[in-house]
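Structure (tokenized):
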């Protein structure tokens, strides 16, 4: 069986590694541990302890190498990050369109000052 898995963190090919992965195996590109819960087929955020293997001992750090005997390589563990680019038009739509910010005129400054002063008068 050919190893077509990708690193769970950076997406680099793991084809150069032999299976099964050993606890000390790391990604050649980013140096992250590979015998980790996040690269295991049993890893599932929807279940208790994030593991579908019911008799496996709980691993507290899912991103660090561990000694779990139930580790099964997940060929599809890498999930590319969603684009977080926010466009100017998206922000304008969110905050009310192209309306310009109010200008600081002397009259509006005086009105604001009077309103503030009136709060503290007896």
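Design, position by position:
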């Amino acid at each position: 069986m050919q190893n077509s898995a990708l690193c769970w963190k950076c997406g680099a090919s793991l084809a150069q590694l032999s299976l099964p992965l050993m606890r000390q195996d790391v990604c050649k590109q980013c140096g992250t541990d590979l015998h980790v819960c996040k690269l295991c087929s049993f890893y599932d955020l929807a279940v208790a302890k994030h593991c579908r293997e019911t008799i496996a001992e709980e691993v507290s750090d899912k991103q660090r190498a561990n000694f779990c005997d139930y580790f099964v390589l997940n060929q599809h563990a890498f999930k590319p990050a969603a684009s977080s680019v926010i466009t100017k038009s998206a922000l304008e739509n969110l905050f009310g369109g192209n309306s310009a910010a109010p200008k600081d005129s002397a009259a509006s400054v005086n009105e604001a000052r009077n309103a503030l002063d009136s709060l503290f008068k007896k």
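Reviewer-requested clarification: Residues 1-97 form one domain. The CA atoms of residues 47 and 53 lie 10 Å apart.
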